[in-house]
Amino acid sequence: MTKYAITPHDLKYCREKINGQRSYLSNNHFSTSTGQVKSLLDVSFSANISERYYSQLSNKINTMHSLSISQSLKPVFLTITLDGFFRGFLTANYRKWHRLTDVEKFQYLKHIPNNEVHGYLHDKINSESKFTIKDCYNVLAYQWYRYSSGYSFKKIKKDAKQFMYLKAAEPHKDGVPHFHVLLWIPQGYFETFKKDFERYFPAPQNHVPIKDGNEGDTKGFQTAIHNPVGYIMKYATKSFMDLRTGEDLNHLQAWYVKHKIRRITTSHSTVPQWVYQKVFALEKDWYHLTDLTIREPMLCEWNKEDDYFILMEDNGRVLEYDQGLLTLRYIDGPILKQLGEKSDRPKTQPRIMERVPLKWVNQHLKPFIPVYIDQKYFIFKNNQLLSPKPQPMKMKNYALVNYYNEIDVETVNPHHYAHVRNEMIKRNLIDGEIIPLDQNTKSEMWGYSEYDL
């Protein structure tokens, strides 16, 4: 009998795959700007290869827990499972499904995806085809997507309240996945979140009452949590290898590798991991960096596509990263520390449509060719050379302030100036009243203009 539906062949394949990746990373080296020679393994954060991944994950979980205490958030522990008939789907056994009434089938199909992102699983059910483990995972992911997009999450965002969550995927002994979620929310939202939980996760075992919890607690929705971090770390710990001992993947860890399933996902509640990894050389306190984004007034912004971020503290200390160059300085003061060097490529790279899989591309959009003339950016589209007009709505705060201050009020298009000023007001960068603009004005301002050579 296989364990977690992982056969000896699967286990061997996964081990060879990970060992091959480790060998490749170990045998490829590069030189840093300071002359150090490092291997790709030294900078890797792979969950199955790098010792740093688990320690950084632990750091992030502890940071989120500390933030929850500082923001007076209370933990809720969710256990999300699938109904029993999904096990039959794995072997094309649809007998339990056929026992449901037409009304019950209709109610269940609302919780089963039939789209490009999560899979066309309605079609598999109609043809009584076999499900895969990843299909079952996608059902849970789809239910979580609907839950996190539902009324309770919208309400807490509308009320400008903080929330956080950690979601861990884990297999049953037969390989069928289930989720464990640690959710931090204000206590006054417990009832709203529970009602949505009952709505979006239909499996009966999610809603079985328990005796040792608070009133109204079920197996799927528990509020009597004494050690919230310990709850989620218990599931995270056993899904990772102890890389210090050099052990091979076991059946549980191979389950994640074979089916390409993420062990843990989190809400966007902290400074992004890519920002933290780049600033780690100068600032290791993830909690402090995240706290900067909460306090007002602060200037903290980042853009992964531009490879840029700036984190400004209330004492004037500034951490700025721009395309490989990390700088620590004070506002209007000297540079204290500087690491790396800035790359020569343009700060904003034009999106190359051909590199995007067709299923993610709007089929009505036609590719364009980026063109640089005298270091200015244009696009060649529909046999015309076009010049994109400035788009303040997409600018970072720092760039927007500089752009606004450089506008020549006497020569600028008044509609464009009004739009820039409105954007400054909306971001609380200046005081004033919003100037109403009609739709025609907006379309004229933000389209492409033909460039006369």
Keywords:
single chain, alpha+beta, five-stranded antiparallel β-sheet, 16 helices, 18 strands
- Overall residue-averaged pLDDT value: 82
Compute the number of helices. 16
Note the gap between the termini: 73 Å
Structural class: alpha+beta
Low-confidence residue ranges: 347-365, 439-453
Number of strands: 18
Overall form: globular
**How much strand?**
15-25%
Task: Describe the SSE topology.
Layout: H1 8-26, E1 29-31, E2 37-39, H2 51-70, E3 74-80, H3 85-89, H4 95-98, H5 102-109, E4 114-115, E5 119-120, H6 121-126, H7 133-148, H8 151-158, E6 164-171, E7 177-185, H9 190-200, E8 221-222, H10 228-238, H11 251-259, E9 264-266, H12 273-279, H13 286-294, E10 299-303, E11 308-312, E12 317-322, E13 325-330, E14 335-340, E15 369-373, E16 376-381, E17 384-388, H14 397-406, H15 414-426, H16 439-445, E18 448-450
Antiparallel strand pairs: 1-2, 3-7, 3-8, 4-5, 6-7, 6-9, 10-11, 11-12, 12-13, 13-14, 15-16, 16-17, 17-18
